[in-house]
Design brief:
The protein is built from seven helices and eleven strands. It is an alpha/beta fold and 241 residues long. It has two domains: 140 residues, NAD(P)-binding Rossmann-like Domain (Rossmann fold); 90 residues, Dihydrodipicolinate Reductase, domain 2 (2-Layer Sandwich).
Length: 241
């Protein structure tokens, strides 16, 4: 049994709690965040890490960038593995994650959906085949409350394409739309000579991120200290390690 503390009390915390209810290999021992959850739950809530009475096997972080900094410091100090799905993280907080990774296993990914990570893999493969000068447009559509634009997932997809091309991302442009209750749609368009093609991922339910977080978190607890990505998790998933 893997005992988890969730850092955050919003919609992703609720989705993870719902996903855990159907499993017998993980449990949530507490929620930590400055605001109490506005959804019905019997999971104990604490306003700060200092109020926790014991240490979990894993901390899952779905807060905001400053919350991720606090999570990284706490996990490093208490030797607790950290999985973060927070997007829009600036360089100084990436540095905090790297620092924590010297002490504990840390997995940071802006998107833990299996489908999105397959999309990234396909986009990377396409980037090695189409003409180097082909323009690439990455569009992300999300709900009206999402703050970062482009989304962390869009930037992740762009970085993967640039990496496979072995160049910068100057030929990649981003478009963001924020409206309604849309969970997430990411479209990658490759514009070639006389033709173009799209790769698309549509999220229909937030549970896909929760299930991915639980799967990745379970994998992470068996790893040595270091900074891991969703690619590492999927590679380990395929290899059964």
């Amino acid at each position: 049994m893997i005992h988890i503390v969730i850092h955050g009390t919003g919609r992703m915390a609720a989705a993870i709690a719902a996903a855990v209810a159907d499993r017998d290999d993980v449990s949530i021992s507490a929620l930590v965040g400055p605001q109490a959850p506005d959804w019905e739950t019997k999971i104990p809530w604490f306003s700060s890490f200092a109020d926790l009475s014991g240490l979990p096997d894993l901390l899952i972080d779905f807060t905001l960038p400053e919350g991720t900094r606090a999570a990284a410091i706490w996990c490093a100090s208490n030797k607790v593995p950290l999985l973060s799905g927070v997007t829009g993280i600036p360089a100084d907080i990436v540095a905090a994650l790297n620092s924590a990774a010297l002490c504990v296993p840390v997995l940071w990914s802006p998107n833990l959906s299996l489908g999105v990570n397959l999309l990234a893999d396909l986009a990377g493969r396409a980037a090695t085949i189409v003409e180097q000068e082909s323009a690439v447009i990455i569009e992300d559509i999300h709900h009206q409350w999402k703050k970062d634009a482009p989304s962390g997932t869009a930037l992740m997809l762009g970085a993967r394409i640039a990496e496979e091309r072995s160049d910068d991302d100057s030929a990649i442009s981003y478009q963001s739309v924020r409206e309604g209750e849309i969970i997430g749609v990411h479209t990658i368009t490759f514009k070639m000579n006389g033709e173009e093609f799209d790769l698309v991922h549509r999220a229909h339910d937030r549970s896909i991120y929760a299930l991915g977080a639980l799967d990745a978190g379970a994998w992470l607890t068996g790893q040595a200290p270091g900074l891991y990505s969703a690619r590492d998790w999927l590679s380990g998933r395929r290899q059964g390690s």
